[in-house]
Design a protein that fits this description.
Layout lengths: L6 E7 L6 H9 L8 E7 L6 H11 L3 E5 L5 H11 L4 E4 L4 E3 L3 H12 L3 E4 L2 E2 L4 H9 L3 H4 L11 E2 L4 E6 L1 H5 L11 H11 L4 E3 L5 E3 L5 H22 L9 H14 L7 H20 L6 H29 L26
Parallel strand pairs: 1-2, 1-4, 2-3, 6-10, 7-11
Antiparallel strand pairs: 4-9, 5-11, 6-9, 8-10
C-alpha cells in the first residue's frame, strides 16, 4: 500500500457531556488507518462531565488527547490544536455532527485528487423534531440559504467556503491560523484568506456529514443574529467579501426600515411588504409541502426570522466592530518546525 497522510482530527468543545462520547466513538470508528490518526479535543473549561468522559475515552484509546482552551472560543481552540498537531492534514470536526464512516478517507482522497488546500462536504441538515424538519425544508431553498454552494449536497467544485474542512498543514503556515477572537464566521474568514494567498477550496459530494439545526424560532434567531455579527466583523476586517451574498439580509432590513420611516411620503411600503410575504409564501409552499401541509406556515415563518435576525446582527456588528475593532491585521502563522510531522512511512499490507 502507498503511504497514507497522518491526520489530526481537531475538535473544540465546551460542556458537551451529552454528545462527546457518541461523537468520539464514531470518529474512532472511521475506516481510515488507525495508526495514521490522532484525535485532539480542545476543551474550553467544561463544568459538566465532559472532561471526565474525555479522560475515560483517552484511557481506552490513546489516540484521543484533551488539551486546554483557556479562551473558550472555538477558533482559539482550533489554534491550540494546530500548534500541537502532528498531522500533515487537519480535519476539523464538530461535536454535534454525524459523520459517514469514510469521512476522513474521502477528505484525503479529495485533497489528493484536486490539489486543493481545503476540502469539505455540504452542510447537510438532519431533523429529530418537527420544527427541525420544517427548518431543514427551509434550508433547501435559495430564500433560506441565499444560494450558498456549501448548503447543497448536489454541488461539487471549487467554492468560496465549505462546512468544517480538511486542511493541508501548509495552509496555517501561509494563510495563517484561525482568528482567535472570531465567535462566528471563523471558517469563512479563514477560507477567504486561503483564496487571498492563492489557495483553493473544494466542495465534494463524496464527503458526507450531517448536523442538527436549531429547535425553535428563538434559538434560530439568536444563531443568525450572531452569524450576522460575524459576517460584519469579517467585512470590516478583510475589507471585502468573496460575494455580496452575506450582505443581502442587511440590505433587506435597511430597505424595510427605510420604507417604514418614509411611508408618509409614498405608497410603496405596503406593496413592498406584500410582495415579500407573497414571495416567501410561495417558496414555503414549494419546499414545505414535502413535509406535509402543516409544515408550510412554519417554513413561511422561518424565512423572515432568518433574514431579519441576520440583517440586524450585521448592522449590530458593523456598529460594534466599526467602533472597536478587536483583531490584528496580520494573522498568526504556524511555525513550520514548531511540531514534528509524523513521517509518511509505508503501511503494512
Amino acid at each position: 500500500m502507498t503511504a497514507a497522510p497522518f491526520v489530526t482530527i481537531a475538535m473544540p468543545c465546551l460542556n458537551e457531556e451529552g454528545y462527546i462520547e457518541a461523537c468520539l466513538r464514531s470518529v474512532a470508528a472511521q475506516d481510515y488507518p488507525r495508526d495514521r490518526i490522532e484525535i485532539l479535543v480542545a476543551d474550553g473549561g467544561s463544568t459538566d462531565r465532559t472532561r471526565e468522559i474525555l479522560a475515560n475515552l483517552s484511557e481506552q484509546d490513546p489516540r484521543i488527547r484533551m488539551i486546554d482552551n483557556p479562551d473558550r472560543i472555538q477558533a482559539a481552540g482550533m489554534n491550540q490544536i494546530i500548534r500541537q498537531a502532528r498531522g500533515d492534514v487537519m480535519v476539523r470536526m464538530d461535536v454535534h455532527c454525524e459523520y459517514a464512516q469514510d469521512y476522513v478517507r474521502r477528505c484525503i482522497e479529495v485533497l489528493e485528487r484536486t490539489g486543493a488546500d481545503n476540502v469539505g462536504g455540504a452542510q447537510r441538515p438532519r431533523a429529530k423534531t418537527w420544527f427541525q424538519r420544517a427548518l431543514c425544508a427551509a434550508l433547501t431553498s435559495p430564500a433560506g440559504v441565499g444560494g450558498a454552494s456549501y448548503r447543497s449536497a448536489d454541488n461539487e467544485g471549487f467554492v468560496d467556503t465549505v462546512f468544517l474542512g480538511a486542511f493541508r498543514r501548509r495552509v496555517f503556515e501561509t494563510a495563517g491560523m484561525y482568528d482567535p477572537k472570531a465567535i462566528t464566521n471563523e471558517d469563512a474568514e479563514l477560507n477567504q484568506r486561503i483564496h487571498e494567498a492563492g489557495g483553493k477550496v473544494f466542495l465534494s459530494r463524496d464527503i458526507v456529514v450531517h448536523y442538527y439545526p436549531r429547535t425553535s424560532y428563538k434559538a434560530l434567531a439568536k444563531q443568525y443574529y450572531k452569524y450576522g455579527q460575524g459576517r460584519a466583523r469579517t467585512l470590516l476586517k478583510r475589507g471585502t467579501f468573496p460575494s455580496p451574498r452575506p450582505a443581502i439580509p442587511f440590505a433587506m432590513v435597511v430597505t424595510g426600515v427605510g420604507l417604514l420611516a418614509t411611508s408618509r411620503w409614498h405608497r410603496l411600503t405596503l406593496p413592498a411588504f406584500a410582495l415579500y410575504a407573497a414571495a416567501t409564501g410561495v417558496e414555503a409552499v414549494r419546499v414545505g409541502r414535502r413535509e406535509g401541509l402543516r409544515a408550510i406556515p412554519i417554513v413561511w415563518g422561518i424565512f423572515p426570522v432568518l433574514h431579519v435576525s441576520h440583517g440586524l446582527g450585521f448592522a449590530s456588528g458593523l456598529l460594534r466592530y466599526g467602533l472597536d475593532p478587536d483583531w490584528t491585521r496580520e494573522p498568526e502563522r504556524l511555525d513550520p518546525i514548531s511540531v514534528p510531522i509524523v513521517a509518511n512511512e509505508p503501511l503494512e499490507a
